[in-house]
Amino acid sequence: MDAVRRGRRGQRRTGRAGEDSGADPLPTDENAAGAVRERGAAGQASVSRLLRPSLTGQLFIANVVLLTLAVVVTASVWTVHNYWELERQYERRALAVARSVATVPAIQQALASAEDPEPRVAPLAERLRAASDARYVVVMDTAGIRYSHPDPDEIGRRAANDPSPASEGQVWTGTQFGPAGWTLRAKVPVRSGTSEDGDVIGVVSVGIAVSEIEGAAVRAASVAAGAAVVVLVGGALGAWVISRRVRAKTHGLEPREITQLLEHREALLHAIREGVLAVTAEGEVELANQPARDMLGLDAHCVGRSLATLGLESGIHDILSGARSGNDQMAMVGSRILVCNRRDTGDGRAVVTMRDHTELMRLSDELDGARTVTRGLRAQSHEFTNRIHTVAGMLDLGSVEQARSYLTELSPSHDRAGSEITGRINDVALAALVMAKSAQASEQGLRLDLAPVTRIPAELGTDVREEVLLVVGNLLDNALEAAGAGGWVELLLLAHEGPQTPPLLEVRVSDSGPGIADAVADGLFAAGTSTKAASTAGGDDRSHRGMGLALVRHACARRGGWITVDTDGETAFTAYVPLAAAPPEDRTDALGSPEDTREGGEA
């Protein structure tokens, strides 16, 4: 027992020593099982790859198998046909030799004489056999007794095969077995005299060994087999090259992955609200999702058509064709404001994405109007605060009469400015906008006047008020910025209505600014056209530059109206907004061309 305990203590000490020395622990059953599972999984993956090769592997295997089948079938058919052709050639050769021997006069005379023909026939037949390279040339009588044979022992014996029908005067060819083995034979009758009607006095049999024919066929087949091997190797190399090109074209994707990618692309194109349009290097539409077709007014048959045949406006056409480059390009399509980005794919193709910012721009303009009103109210509040402080100071100094006089002078001027606007403009929202713009002008050192004939006798309808506010707000903003400090702006608002004409609102804004150059005026209402310096637009305003007048034009066009610009002398913009909505065909006509907006032309 003590020895057993000492042994166990020794084992424990040995184990601790092993741990202290950093020796690797023995593998556990769990580790071994994990390693076995990993090896099994790797083996299964290898087997799976072999049983399910990739697309390029399938193409390579299919091409090689088809090529092999084609080469094997072709080679087999050619080999059989070649053997038959060789057999016919040797048959004709044996028949020609037999006929030549049968017409030799010496042989005919020897067979016709009463003497034994063997001494004269055998040497001559042997010489003819050697000259013709036949297996044998046998001359016999009609009973089949041989007078010549390559084997002298066979001379004088009866032939192993029946000499008929040659002994009956007919020519016979075929394959038979005899002392020389399997031979292709030709048997020809020997007639007395030179006439074809002479009596049959013997038979000539010429044989060519079948092994000779087979050898020739094997030699031809070996050449064909070599050619087939070369074709197979070349075909396999070509199949490999094709499979590699297919793999490169498909970016290594398998059919299942290509299908998934196509499904995902279709789902993505139909799920997003942005328009996506792909253009080829030749300028043809390659792809267009539904939002893109809706934004551009295209039908479902636009794919495959050239951009020039789609009837697109010049702005969007330049973006799609690449004539205009840059990010977030603005374009007007009908009544829509589109923000477009074009990206080249590197092979001449391009993808254009489009976002409809029409509503966003309208909301932005409404927000600008609200900010204008807020700034006007802030300015008035600041002005009133200063006046209140002035009055309070007078009261603190005891100058009550001066304070009363100051207030008396101040009230009529303020009431007069406000009452003039509200008295001529009976629409509350429009009047508020004009008052805010007037306060803004005063804050900037400008003068905003109403034309003497300005009059809006009634409230505007809710459907037209937004368009009118947009038109007035944008035109006044542009005029105030163009006039500058110390300048003036005049606003004319006049409602026209007659028995033969629908109600129409005339909005005319003129200013004392430097004017507009004729070159700029021609395309002034196109999206992205601006007379402002690039340095004046920063931050978010830069994406909206050149859109104000385009929005004004389309606000008028939506109701069948138009806008003109007069650059002779002072700059004056005149917009005509029908107070009743125009039918769709009039709206389309009203859009017209942005270049046709000079004085005397309609936009």
TrEMBL record:
Keywords attached to this entry: ATP-binding, Cell membrane, Kinase, Membrane, Nucleotide-binding, Phosphoprotein, Transferase, Transmembrane, Transmembrane helix, Two-component regulatory system
Region of interest: Disordered: 1-31, 150-172, 580-603
Biased composition (Basic and acidic residues): 150-160, 584-603
Recorded topology in the membrane: Multi-pass membrane protein
Basic residues bias locations: 1-15
Transmembrane segments: 59-80
Subcellular location: Cell membrane
GO cellular component: plasma membrane
Histidine kinase domain sequence ranges: 379-581
PROSITE patterns named among the record's database cross-references: HIS_KIN
GO molecular function: ATP binding; phosphorelay sensor kinase activity
Location, primary (coarse class): membrane
PANTHER family documented for this protein: SENSOR HISTIDINE KINASE DCUS, TWO-COMPONENT HISTIDINE KINASE
Protein's name in the database: Two-component system CitB family sensor kinase
Organism: Haloactinospora alba
